[in-house]
């Protein structure tokens, strides 16, 4: 699989929405509880500072995506936040790593100085391992900070990386 990373195009929206909604419906990683419809997805992705997609160069299919946006405003506006989604059938192929690495480059190019993840679910071992391998620092643990799909609460671990 030959993965290329680029900014999203309007023609990507259907596949982006499908991948995004898959993660939302799993209910173990994203804070959102509602899936996106076509018009909501168009507005949501357009509102980000940057959306990157991982594309299989051979088939043209989207393998994953990320959204990048400010984490706060004003005096904290130099800190950004991002979310990543990989097609469930393609996980484990280092696509997430390519997305995070590209996101860090895009964030720096946009003038952000810090990339912060507010709510990495403690049991999301793959994401936590990736972030730590890429040099992110865990800030601590927030007990019961994430409502899982099954109704239980899981700890979250905020992370940051200076860009």
Brief sketch in words of this structure:
The protein has 163 residues and is α+β, with helices and mostly antiparallel strands. Helices cover 29% and strands 34% of the residues.
Mean pLDDT: 97
* Euclidean distance between termini CA atoms: 29 Å
Low-confidence stretches: none
In CATH's first tier, which class applies? Alpha Beta
**What would you call the structural class?**
alpha+beta
Helix content: 25-40%
- CATH superfamily label: Gcn5-related N-acetyltransferase (GNAT)
Largest sheet: 8 strands, mixed
Q: Any guess at the CATH architecture?
A: 3-Layer(aba) Sandwich
Measured by DSSP, the beta-strand proportion falls in 25-35%
Number of strands: 8
Anisotropy-based shape: globular
Q: What is the total number of structural domains?
A: 1
The total of helices stands at: 4
- Per the CATH scheme, the topology name is Aminopeptidase
Radius of gyration: 15 Å
Following the backbone from N to C, one meets helices and strands in this order, namely EHHEEEHEHEEE
What does this structure look like?
- With 163 residues, the chain is of the alpha+beta class.
- It has a single domain (3-162), classed as Gcn5-related N-acetyltransferase (GNAT) (Aminopeptidase, 3-Layer(aba) Sandwich).
- Helices cover 29% and strands 34% of the residues.
- It contains four helices and eight strands.
- The protein has helices spanning 13-26, 38-46, 95-109, 125-133; strands at residues 3-7, 50-56, 62-70, 79-86, 114-121, 137-138, 142-147, 153-162.
- Strands 1, 2, 3, 4, 5, 6, 7 and 8 form an eight-stranded mixed beta sheet that branches.
- Helix 1 (13-26) packs across helix 2.
- The longest helix has 15 residues, at 95-109.
- The chain is globular, with a radius of gyration of 15 Å.
- The model has no long low-confidence stretch (mean pLDDT 97).
